[in-house]
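Input:
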Amino acid sequence: MEEKVKDIGTDEKQEYIINIGPQHPSTHGVMRLVVSLEGETVKNVEPHLGYIHRGIEKMCESLTYPQIIHLTDRMDYLSAHINNEVFCLAVEKALEIDIPDRVKVIRTLMSELTRIQSHELFWASYGMDLGGQTCYFYGLRDREMVLDIFEETTGGRMLVSYNCPGGVMYDLHPNFQKRVKDFIKHFRKVLPEYDEILTNNVIFHERTVGIGTLLREEAISYGITGPSARASGFSCDVRKHEPYSAYDRVKFNEVLYTDGDAFHRYLARVEEMRESMNIIDQLIDNIPEGPYAVKMKPVIKLPEGEYYQRVETPRGELGVYIISDGNKTPYRVHFRTPNFANLSVLNHLAKGFKIADLISIFGSLDYVIPDIDR
Amino acid sequence: MDKKQLAEFIKSLDSDFEIKEGKQYTEVTVRPSKIHSLARQLKEKEETLFDFLDCITGVDYGHDLGVIYHLRSTKYQHFVVIKSRTADRENPQFDSVTDLWQAANLHEREAYDLLGIRFTNHPDLRRLFLNSSWGFPLRKDYVDNDNITS
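Output:
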C-alpha cells in the first residue's frame, strides 16, 4: 500500500485514493484521473495521460502536407473540420495563396455546423453525466441531422477531411443549402426544449451553479480558452480578435459571462449554438459562385521559415506551429490544442469540492481526450 | 505596440537580445540563462503585459535543442516569440516559467516527455504521455523501433 501511495506522487499516507478511468463513462474517452480524497472532499486530482497517444507530431515529420490534414481530424474528432482548416490556413499563409471567396464561405459554414454538432454532443453528454438520460437522446437525434449534411457533401460523418491546401476537396452537394436551412429551422424549434429540460432544471442547477468557479485572472494564467474561458469573462474568441476565412464579414456576438462556474460554462456553449445559427443564416443564401479550390502544385513545399496559425474550435484556441526547412515534409509541427491547455486547470477547480462535483466540473470543461494526448 | 515598437522596447531591456522582425511576429533569441528574467519583464512591464502563454514548443535542430515560447497580451493583443537554444544534448536545461504562467506546467512536461528537455524549478517534472523507459521520440536521432512513422 505504501508503495502505491508513493507511486502516484503524494506524501499524505492517510489519503484515500480512487481511480476514475481509464475506462469510465464520465471521462468520455481513455483518461485516468487519480483522485485523493478526504472523506468525500477532493484533495488532489492527478490526470494520467497517454492512453491514446499516437505521436501525431512525430508522424507529421515524415508525411507531406496534404497527408497531415487527415491526421488533424484525429485529434479533436468533434471539430475535425476546424482542425483541417487550421492546417490548411497555415499552409496557405506560408505559400501566400489567395483563397477564393467561395471557399472562405464554405469553410465558415462548415465550421459553424461543426461547432453546433460539437456543442450538441456536449449538451447531450453533460446532461447524461448529471443524470438526465433524455438529454443524450435529444442531443444525438439533432446532431444526426448535421452529420447527414456532412456525409452528403464530404463523404465522412465525423472525420470529414474536407479541406485541402487551396480550398476544399469537392464542391457542395446540390442539396446542401436546403438541408442546412431545414436543420436550422428544426433546431430553432427544439432549442427551447433543450432549455426546458436542462437549463431551467432545478436539479441541474443544484449540480452546477457555484461549482468549480474559475476567475478571469486564473483563466488567463492557466491558458484556458474557448467557452470555458468566456464564461469567466475572458474575451478570447479568435474569430473576433483575428478573423480568418469569412468571419470578418458576418455579425455575431462573443458570448461572455462573468460568473465562471460550471453552469455558465454550460450556458456559454448553449448560447454559442444560437450565435452559430445566426452566422449560418447570414451566409447560407450568399455563397459566392466560383471555383471551390485553387489549383496547387502536385508536390507542396513550404518556403523555409516558421508559421503560426490559430483558429477557434468549439473548445477553444487551436494553434498550429510549422517549422519548414523547404522540403515536402515539415521539419517540426506542433499543435497547441485547446483541451491540452484546458486540462491544466482541472486540479485547481476541483480542489475542495465533493467527488460528485468533480464529474460536473470535468463535464463542464468539455474535454476530448485524443486532443489532449495527440 | 506594433512589431517595430515591440522590437525596440525589448532591445531597450537588454542589448544582449537578438531581435528579428519575423513575417508574423517579433522574435527574440536569448541565452537559456536569461529566459526567466526576460519572461518576467515581458509579463510585468506595463507597456507589454504578456499575460497569456499560448504554447511552448520543444525543437530538435539537429545539433542543438531549443524551446520556443509564444506569448500574447490579452490587453493589447500583441504577440511575441521567444527562442532559446542549447548545444548540451545530454542534459539540456532551461528555466521553468511555471511561476509566471500556470499554463507552462503541462507544456513543459510535454517538452520533457518528447524531447528530454529539463526545466529547472518546475514543480512536478515527470513523463507525461510515455513511460520512463521510453526514449525521446521527437529527437531527430531517435531510433524508431516500433515503426511509429512508417
